[in-house]
Specification:
Layout: H1 2-53, H2 57-63, E1 78-81, E2 85-88, E3 97-106, H3 109-117, H4 119-131, H5 135-138, H6 141-159, E4 172-182
Antiparallel strand pairs: 1-3, 2-3, 3-4
Helix pairs in contact: 4-6
Length: about 180
């Protein structure tokens, strides 16, 4: 019986040692997971707290490429050239077409990068606008000025779809024709 008692005692000592090591490992892992989860929650909530101070504008600001800077009135304007447009005009006296090269004036160079992202949509909308015109509408100075205004509104509608900016705060300040040919 002495032999039977001795192995029972060795097995009893080994089992608590193994279970205490496993318990210690589980506790350490649990503390690490909870600590990392708490740190992640803290960082996420701290990041959102800055946006909550702004109120409802926080959702709108996420879509903006950058925060709006103060405009330096002495800074030179930034011009973004667009590729040439060639469209058929609405027929009056036979087939006529318009070839147009446009540059747009913006306050911020980052708007130029934003324009590049939306180029396919901008070109489509401007092409549709141009092809709906008659040559007689575009010949006069007033017709050209009206067209520039319509292009500006069209572009700002794409770049500022929520209409957040007032007309004076639109990304596109002016539309300039660098070439205007009707044939």
């Amino acid at each position: 019986m002495a032999k039977d008692a001795k192995p029972a005692t060795d097995t009893g000592d080994a089992a608590p040692a193994k279970s205490s090591k496993k318990l210690l490992i589980i506790i350490v892992l649990l503390v690490l997971v909870l600590g990392l989860g708490g740190l992640s929650a803290f960082l996420l909530l701290r990041g959102n707290a800055a946006h909550e101070e702004d109120g409802d504008e926080a959702v709108v600001e996420k879509a903006k490429p950058a925060k709006k800077k103060k405009v330096d009135l002495n800074a030179p304007p930034v011009y973004v050239p667009l590729d040439a447009f060639t469209v058929n005009l609405v027929p009056e006296n036979g087939d006529q077409f318009l070839q147009l090269i446009v540059s747009v004036e913006v306050d911020d160079p980052q708007v130029g990068e934003h324009i590049k992202l939306y180029t396919p949509k901008l070109r489509n909308d401007i092409t549709l606008l141009l092809s709906s015109k008659k040559a007689s509408q575009l010949i006069t100075k007033e017709g050209k000025e009206l067209l520039a205004q319509e292009i500006r509104e069209q572009m700002n509608g794409v770049l500022d779809p929520a209409g957040k900016g007032k007309k004076r705060d639109w990304p596109i300040k002016d539309v300039l024709f660098t070439s205007f040919i009707i044939q």
